[in-house]
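Minutes, project huddle
Topic: does the predicted pose make sense with pyridoxal-5'-phosphate bound?
PN asked that the exact inputs be recorded in the minutes so nobody has to dig through chat later. Recorded below.
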Amino acid sequence: MPFFDHNATTPLATVARDTWLRAQDEAWQNPSSAYRAGTQVKIRLDAAREKFAILLGDEAERYVFTSGATEGANLVLAHWARTLPEDSLIGLNPTEHPCVLAPALALFGSRVRWLSLDAAGVVDLASLQRDNQLGYGAGRIAAVVVMAANNVTGVLQPWAQMAELCQRSGVAYLCDASQWLGKLPSGGIGGEGFVIASAHKFGGPKGVGLLKLAKQSEGLRGQLGGGQERGHRGGTEDFPAIAAMGAALAEAEQKKVFLETDRLRWRDDFERDLTLAIPGARVVAGGADRLWNTVALIMPFGANTRWVTRLDKRGVQISTGSACASGKSGPSSVLSALGFDVESAQRGVRVSAGWATSEQDWRELLGAFTAVAVEVRE
Ligand code: PLP
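Predicted holo structure (C-alpha coordinates), as shared on screen:
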Protein backbone atom coordinates (compact mmCIF):
# COMPACT_ATOMS: atom_id res chain seq x y z
CA MET A 1 0.00 0.00 0.00
CA PRO A 2 1.19 3.53 -0.69
CA PHE A 3 3.35 5.42 1.81
CA PHE A 4 2.34 9.06 2.12
CA ASP A 5 4.65 10.35 4.84
CA HIS A 6 7.84 11.13 2.92
CA ASN A 7 8.24 14.52 4.59
CA ALA A 8 8.79 12.67 7.86
CA THR A 9 11.36 10.35 6.33
CA THR A 10 12.00 8.54 3.06
CA PRO A 11 12.90 4.91 2.45
CA LEU A 12 16.62 4.39 1.88
CA ALA A 13 17.37 4.63 -1.86
CA THR A 14 18.95 1.47 -3.31
CA VAL A 15 21.96 3.44 -4.50
CA ALA A 16 22.43 4.89 -1.00
CA ARG A 17 22.16 1.44 0.60
CA ASP A 18 24.72 -0.04 -1.80
CA THR A 19 27.10 2.88 -1.24
CA TRP A 20 26.69 2.65 2.53
CA LEU A 21 27.37 -1.11 2.63
CA ARG A 22 30.44 -0.80 0.42
CA ALA A 23 31.84 2.08 2.47
CA GLN A 24 31.22 0.13 5.70
CA ASP A 25 33.44 -2.63 4.31
CA GLU A 26 36.09 -0.49 2.67
CA ALA A 27 36.27 2.75 4.61
CA TRP A 28 35.05 2.31 8.17
CA GLN A 29 38.17 3.70 9.85
CA ASN A 30 38.30 7.06 11.62
CA PRO A 31 39.21 9.76 9.08
CA SER A 32 41.24 11.56 11.78
CA SER A 33 43.55 8.56 12.36
CA ALA A 34 47.11 9.18 11.21
CA TYR A 35 47.76 5.73 9.69
CA ARG A 36 47.20 5.11 6.00
CA ALA A 37 43.74 3.53 6.25
CA GLY A 38 42.50 6.57 8.19
CA THR A 39 44.08 8.98 5.72
CA GLN A 40 42.40 7.14 2.87
CA VAL A 41 39.01 7.63 4.50
CA LYS A 42 39.87 11.31 4.96
CA ILE A 43 40.62 11.57 1.22
CA ARG A 44 37.30 9.94 0.39
CA LEU A 45 35.56 12.26 2.83
CA ASP A 46 36.98 15.29 1.06
CA ALA A 47 35.97 13.81 -2.29
CA ALA A 48 32.41 13.55 -0.92
CA ARG A 49 32.65 17.23 0.02
CA GLU A 50 33.61 18.04 -3.57
CA LYS A 51 30.59 16.11 -4.76
CA PHE A 52 28.24 18.28 -2.68
CA ALA A 53 29.99 21.37 -4.00
CA ILE A 54 29.25 20.17 -7.55
CA LEU A 55 25.64 19.27 -6.77
CA LEU A 56 24.70 22.30 -4.69
CA GLY A 57 27.32 24.85 -5.75
CA ASP A 58 30.06 26.89 -4.07
CA GLU A 59 33.42 25.82 -2.71
CA ALA A 60 33.83 22.40 -1.13
CA GLU A 61 35.32 24.06 1.97
CA ARG A 62 31.90 25.51 2.76
CA TYR A 63 30.44 22.02 3.38
CA VAL A 64 30.43 20.62 6.90
CA PHE A 65 28.93 17.20 7.66
CA THR A 66 26.59 16.96 10.63
CA SER A 67 24.14 14.48 12.11
CA GLY A 68 21.22 16.30 10.46
CA ALA A 69 19.34 19.56 10.14
CA THR A 70 18.61 19.77 13.87
CA GLU A 71 22.31 19.80 14.72
CA GLY A 72 22.97 22.26 11.87
CA ALA A 73 20.32 24.68 13.19
CA ASN A 74 21.73 24.47 16.71
CA LEU A 75 25.28 25.08 15.46
CA VAL A 76 24.35 28.16 13.43
CA LEU A 77 22.11 29.69 16.11
CA ALA A 78 24.75 29.11 18.81
CA HIS A 79 27.32 30.73 16.51
CA TRP A 80 25.08 33.78 16.03
CA ALA A 81 24.44 34.01 19.77
CA ARG A 82 28.23 34.13 20.29
CA THR A 83 29.10 36.52 17.49
CA LEU A 84 26.21 38.94 16.76
CA PRO A 85 26.07 42.25 18.68
CA GLU A 86 24.25 41.81 21.98
CA ASP A 87 21.58 44.38 21.17
CA SER A 88 20.80 43.03 17.69
CA LEU A 89 17.67 41.06 16.79
CA ILE A 90 17.05 37.93 14.70
CA GLY A 91 14.18 37.64 12.22
CA LEU A 92 12.35 34.32 12.22
CA ASN A 93 9.77 32.93 9.86
CA PRO A 94 7.07 31.71 12.31
CA THR A 95 6.49 28.54 10.24
CA GLU A 96 10.05 27.24 10.69
CA HIS A 97 10.56 23.70 11.95
CA PRO A 98 10.79 23.28 15.76
CA CYS A 99 14.49 22.40 15.35
CA VAL A 100 15.00 26.09 14.46
CA LEU A 101 12.32 27.66 16.65
CA ALA A 102 13.37 25.98 19.91
CA PRO A 103 17.07 26.95 19.92
CA ALA A 104 16.29 30.40 18.49
CA LEU A 105 13.87 31.14 21.32
CA ALA A 106 16.17 29.62 23.94
CA LEU A 107 19.20 31.60 22.77
CA PHE A 108 17.61 34.90 21.66
CA GLY A 109 14.35 35.09 23.69
CA SER A 110 12.95 38.63 23.44
CA ARG A 111 15.43 39.41 20.65
CA VAL A 112 13.37 37.28 18.23
CA ARG A 113 11.29 39.25 15.69
CA TRP A 114 8.62 37.29 13.82
CA LEU A 115 8.58 37.96 10.09
CA SER A 116 5.19 38.82 8.58
CA LEU A 117 3.48 36.22 6.40
CA ASP A 118 0.78 36.32 3.78
CA ALA A 119 -2.32 34.14 4.19
CA ALA A 120 -0.53 31.08 2.75
CA GLY A 121 2.48 31.50 5.05
CA VAL A 122 4.86 33.04 2.52
CA VAL A 123 7.27 35.52 4.13
CA ASP A 124 6.48 39.11 3.18
CA LEU A 125 9.76 40.42 1.81
CA ALA A 126 8.35 43.82 0.95
CA SER A 127 7.53 44.67 4.56
CA LEU A 128 11.07 43.84 5.65
CA GLN A 129 12.50 46.11 2.98
CA ARG A 130 9.97 48.88 3.50
CA ASP A 131 10.70 49.43 7.14
CA ASN A 132 14.47 49.21 6.76
CA GLN A 133 14.57 46.71 9.60
CA LEU A 134 17.61 44.80 8.40
CA GLY A 135 21.05 45.90 9.50
CA TYR A 136 23.90 45.38 11.83
CA GLY A 137 23.13 47.58 14.78
CA ALA A 138 21.12 48.11 17.93
CA GLY A 139 17.45 47.15 17.54
CA ARG A 140 17.89 45.99 13.95
CA ILE A 141 17.61 42.48 12.52
CA ALA A 142 21.16 41.20 12.05
CA ALA A 143 20.26 37.62 11.05
CA VAL A 144 17.27 35.98 9.36
CA VAL A 145 15.97 32.40 9.14
CA VAL A 146 13.61 31.46 6.30
CA MET A 147 13.28 27.85 5.17
CA ALA A 148 13.15 26.84 1.49
CA ALA A 149 9.99 24.68 1.58
CA ASN A 150 7.61 24.10 4.45
CA ASN A 151 7.42 20.59 5.90
CA VAL A 152 3.68 20.74 6.70
CA THR A 153 2.13 22.76 3.86
CA GLY A 154 4.84 22.37 1.19
CA VAL A 155 4.72 26.16 0.62
CA LEU A 156 7.81 27.48 -1.16
CA GLN A 157 9.49 30.48 0.41
CA PRO A 158 11.29 33.20 -1.56
CA TRP A 159 14.66 31.98 -0.28
CA ALA A 160 16.68 33.28 -3.25
CA GLN A 161 15.38 36.85 -2.86
CA MET A 162 15.76 36.58 0.92
CA ALA A 163 19.39 35.47 0.56
CA GLU A 164 20.10 38.34 -1.82
CA LEU A 165 18.39 40.90 0.39
CA CYS A 166 20.34 39.72 3.43
CA GLN A 167 23.58 39.85 1.51
CA ARG A 168 22.89 43.40 0.30
CA SER A 169 21.99 44.48 3.83
CA GLY A 170 25.04 42.88 5.43
CA VAL A 171 22.81 40.53 7.42
CA ALA A 172 23.38 36.82 8.12
CA TYR A 173 20.98 34.29 6.60
CA LEU A 174 20.10 30.65 7.35
CA CYS A 175 18.08 28.57 4.88
CA ASP A 176 16.63 25.25 6.06
CA ALA A 177 16.60 23.23 2.83
CA SER A 178 15.50 19.96 4.45
CA GLN A 179 12.31 19.62 2.41
CA TRP A 180 13.63 21.19 -0.77
CA LEU A 181 16.63 18.98 -1.55
CA GLY A 182 15.75 15.98 -3.67
CA LYS A 183 12.38 17.45 -4.65
CA LEU A 184 13.34 20.62 -6.49
CA PRO A 185 16.58 21.73 -8.21
CA SER A 186 19.16 22.24 -5.50
CA GLY A 187 21.91 24.17 -7.31
CA GLY A 188 22.69 27.45 -5.55
CA ILE A 189 20.35 26.72 -2.64
CA GLY A 190 20.57 29.32 0.14
CA GLY A 191 22.69 31.74 -1.89
CA GLU A 192 25.60 33.01 0.17
CA GLY A 193 23.97 32.17 3.50
CA PHE A 194 24.09 29.13 5.78
CA VAL A 195 22.16 26.05 4.59
CA ILE A 196 21.09 22.99 6.59
CA ALA A 197 19.58 19.66 5.48
CA SER A 198 19.11 15.99 6.48
CA ALA A 199 19.90 13.01 4.23
CA HIS A 200 16.87 10.95 5.26
CA LYS A 201 14.50 13.43 3.63
CA PHE A 202 15.88 12.59 0.18
CA GLY A 203 16.61 8.86 0.26
CA GLY A 204 19.76 8.91 2.39
CA PRO A 205 20.31 7.36 5.82
CA LYS A 206 19.04 8.86 9.06
CA GLY A 207 21.49 10.59 11.41
CA VAL A 208 23.55 12.39 8.77
CA GLY A 209 23.18 15.81 7.21
CA LEU A 210 24.99 18.79 5.86
CA LEU A 211 25.62 22.37 6.77
CA LYS A 212 26.82 24.78 4.12
CA LEU A 213 28.72 27.64 5.72
CA ALA A 214 27.89 31.22 4.82
CA LYS A 215 30.30 32.64 2.29
CA GLN A 216 31.30 35.76 4.18
CA SER A 217 31.61 34.07 7.57
CA GLU A 218 34.63 32.67 9.25
CA GLY A 219 32.57 29.53 9.63
CA LEU A 220 31.82 28.06 13.01
CA ARG A 221 35.29 27.80 14.46
CA GLY A 222 35.23 27.89 18.22
CA GLN A 223 32.53 25.25 18.62
CA LEU A 224 32.95 23.06 21.64
CA GLY A 225 33.56 19.36 21.29
CA GLY A 226 36.46 18.68 18.94
CA GLY A 227 38.40 19.81 15.94
CA GLN A 228 36.91 17.67 13.17
CA GLU A 229 35.52 19.25 10.02
CA ARG A 230 38.36 21.78 10.09
CA GLY A 231 37.24 23.04 13.48
CA HIS A 232 33.64 23.82 12.45
CA ARG A 233 32.08 20.75 14.05
CA GLY A 234 33.33 18.28 16.64
CA GLY A 235 32.72 14.53 16.49
CA THR A 236 33.91 11.62 14.38
CA GLU A 237 32.60 11.85 10.82
CA ASP A 238 30.42 8.94 9.67
CA PHE A 239 31.96 8.48 6.23
CA PRO A 240 29.71 5.59 5.06
CA ALA A 241 26.59 7.63 5.88
CA ILE A 242 28.06 10.75 4.23
CA ALA A 243 28.90 8.78 1.08
CA ALA A 244 25.37 7.31 1.02
CA MET A 245 23.90 10.82 1.43
CA GLY A 246 25.92 11.96 -1.61
CA ALA A 247 24.73 9.00 -3.67
CA ALA A 248 21.09 9.67 -2.71
CA LEU A 249 21.25 13.37 -3.57
CA ALA A 250 23.04 12.73 -6.87
CA GLU A 251 20.37 10.23 -7.84
CA ALA A 252 17.53 12.52 -6.79
CA GLU A 253 19.03 15.35 -8.85
CA GLN A 254 19.44 13.09 -11.88
CA LYS A 255 15.83 11.96 -11.67
CA LYS A 256 14.77 15.57 -12.17
CA VAL A 257 11.30 14.78 -10.84
CA PHE A 258 10.58 18.49 -10.72
CA LEU A 259 10.35 18.47 -14.52
CA GLU A 260 7.51 15.96 -14.41
CA THR A 261 4.48 18.21 -14.45
CA ASP A 262 2.27 15.13 -14.13
CA ARG A 263 3.14 15.01 -10.45
CA LEU A 264 1.56 18.40 -9.83
CA ARG A 265 -1.54 17.23 -11.67
CA TRP A 266 -1.83 14.08 -9.51
CA ARG A 267 -1.60 16.23 -6.39
CA ASP A 268 -4.12 18.76 -7.71
CA ASP A 269 -6.55 16.03 -8.83
CA PHE A 270 -6.35 14.48 -5.38
CA GLU A 271 -7.09 17.81 -3.72
CA ARG A 272 -10.02 18.56 -6.01
CA ASP A 273 -11.56 15.09 -5.68
CA LEU A 274 -11.05 14.90 -1.92
CA THR A 275 -12.68 18.26 -1.26
CA LEU A 276 -15.61 17.17 -3.44
CA ALA A 277 -15.91 13.75 -1.77
CA ILE A 278 -15.62 15.10 1.78
CA PRO A 279 -17.46 18.43 1.87
CA GLY A 280 -15.85 20.91 4.26
CA ALA A 281 -12.33 19.46 3.87
CA ARG A 282 -9.92 22.27 3.11
CA VAL A 283 -6.45 22.40 1.54
CA VAL A 284 -4.09 24.64 3.50
CA ALA A 285 -2.36 27.27 1.32
CA GLY A 286 -4.14 25.75 -1.69
CA GLY A 287 -3.44 28.67 -4.02
CA ALA A 288 0.25 29.05 -3.19
CA ASP A 289 3.30 27.60 -4.96
CA ARG A 290 3.95 24.36 -3.14
CA LEU A 291 6.03 21.20 -3.33
CA TRP A 292 4.62 18.70 -5.81
CA ASN A 293 4.45 16.05 -3.10
CA THR A 294 2.76 17.78 -0.13
CA VAL A 295 -0.86 18.42 0.83
CA ALA A 296 -1.93 19.77 4.23
CA LEU A 297 -5.63 19.34 4.91
CA ILE A 298 -8.01 20.56 7.58
CA MET A 299 -10.65 17.84 7.82
CA PRO A 300 -14.23 18.91 8.58
CA PHE A 301 -14.63 16.48 11.50
CA GLY A 302 -12.61 14.04 13.60
CA ALA A 303 -9.30 14.54 15.39
CA ASN A 304 -6.26 14.11 13.13
CA THR A 305 -5.05 11.14 15.19
CA ARG A 306 -8.30 9.33 14.32
CA TRP A 307 -7.77 9.88 10.60
CA VAL A 308 -4.17 8.70 10.87
CA THR A 309 -5.00 5.53 12.81
CA ARG A 310 -8.03 4.64 10.66
CA LEU A 311 -6.08 5.14 7.44
CA ASP A 312 -3.22 3.10 8.91
CA LYS A 313 -5.64 0.21 9.49
CA ARG A 314 -6.23 0.31 5.73
CA GLY A 315 -2.49 0.24 5.10
CA VAL A 316 -2.09 3.93 4.24
CA GLN A 317 0.39 5.99 6.21
CA ILE A 318 -0.06 9.73 6.54
CA SER A 319 0.83 12.22 9.27
CA THR A 320 -0.77 14.67 11.67
CA GLY A 321 1.89 17.26 10.86
CA SER A 322 5.64 17.38 11.32
CA ALA A 323 7.14 14.09 12.50
CA CYS A 324 8.47 15.53 15.73
CA ALA A 325 5.08 17.01 16.57
CA SER A 326 3.06 13.94 15.71
CA GLY A 327 4.03 12.13 18.90
CA LYS A 328 2.57 15.00 20.90
CA SER A 329 -1.08 15.84 21.33
CA GLY A 330 -0.70 19.59 20.63
CA PRO A 331 -1.57 21.17 17.28
CA SER A 332 1.10 21.76 14.61
CA SER A 333 2.98 25.00 15.26
CA VAL A 334 2.83 25.70 11.51
CA LEU A 335 -0.97 25.63 11.44
CA SER A 336 -1.08 27.83 14.55
CA ALA A 337 1.30 30.30 12.88
CA LEU A 338 -1.06 30.38 9.89
CA GLY A 339 -3.85 31.51 12.19
CA PHE A 340 -5.79 28.26 12.60
CA ASP A 341 -7.38 27.95 16.03
CA VAL A 342 -6.44 24.98 18.20
CA GLU A 343 -9.61 23.04 17.38
CA SER A 344 -9.15 23.37 13.59
CA ALA A 345 -5.43 22.62 13.80
CA GLN A 346 -6.24 19.40 15.64
CA ARG A 347 -8.16 18.33 12.55
CA GLY A 348 -5.07 18.94 10.38
CA VAL A 349 -3.39 16.08 8.51
CA ARG A 350 -0.46 15.99 6.10
CA VAL A 351 -0.03 13.82 3.04
CA SER A 352 3.43 13.66 1.41
CA ALA A 353 4.29 11.57 -1.65
CA GLY A 354 7.68 10.31 -2.83
CA TRP A 355 9.44 9.70 -6.14
CA ALA A 356 7.93 6.24 -6.44
CA THR A 357 4.36 7.43 -5.80
CA SER A 358 2.17 6.86 -8.86
CA GLU A 359 -1.13 8.33 -9.99
CA GLN A 360 -2.74 5.06 -8.93
CA ASP A 361 -1.33 5.54 -5.39
CA TRP A 362 -2.96 8.99 -5.18
CA ARG A 363 -6.25 7.39 -6.30
CA GLU A 364 -5.96 4.70 -3.64
CA LEU A 365 -5.31 7.39 -1.06
CA LEU A 366 -8.46 9.21 -2.15
CA GLY A 367 -10.45 5.97 -1.89
CA ALA A 368 -9.09 5.28 1.59
CA PHE A 369 -9.92 8.82 2.80
CA THR A 370 -13.46 8.53 1.46
CA ALA A 371 -14.01 5.15 3.13
CA VAL A 372 -12.50 6.27 6.43
CA ALA A 373 -14.62 9.45 6.44
CA VAL A 374 -17.70 7.30 7.13
CA GLU A 375 -16.03 5.69 10.17
CA VAL A 376 -14.54 8.93 11.53
CA ARG A 377 -17.84 10.80 11.17
CA GLU A 378 -19.50 8.16 13.33
N1 PLP B 1 13.69 21.07 8.99
C1 PLP B 1 12.59 20.62 8.36
C2 PLP B 1 11.87 21.51 7.40
C3 PLP B 1 12.15 19.31 8.60
O1 PLP B 1 11.07 18.85 7.96
C4 PLP B 1 12.86 18.50 9.51
C5 PLP B 1 12.37 17.14 9.83
O2 PLP B 1 11.20 16.88 9.93
C6 PLP B 1 13.98 19.02 10.14
C7 PLP B 1 14.37 20.31 9.85
C8 PLP B 1 14.77 18.24 11.14
O3 PLP B 1 15.41 17.17 10.54
P1 PLP B 1 16.19 16.09 11.44
O4 PLP B 1 15.19 15.57 12.40
O5 PLP B 1 16.66 15.08 10.47
O6 PLP B 1 17.31 16.83 12.12
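Observations noted during the meeting:
- The first strand starts at residue 63 and ends at 66.
- The domain at 261-377 is CATH 3.90.1150.10 (Aspartate Aminotransferase, domain 1).
No decisions taken; revisit at the next huddle.
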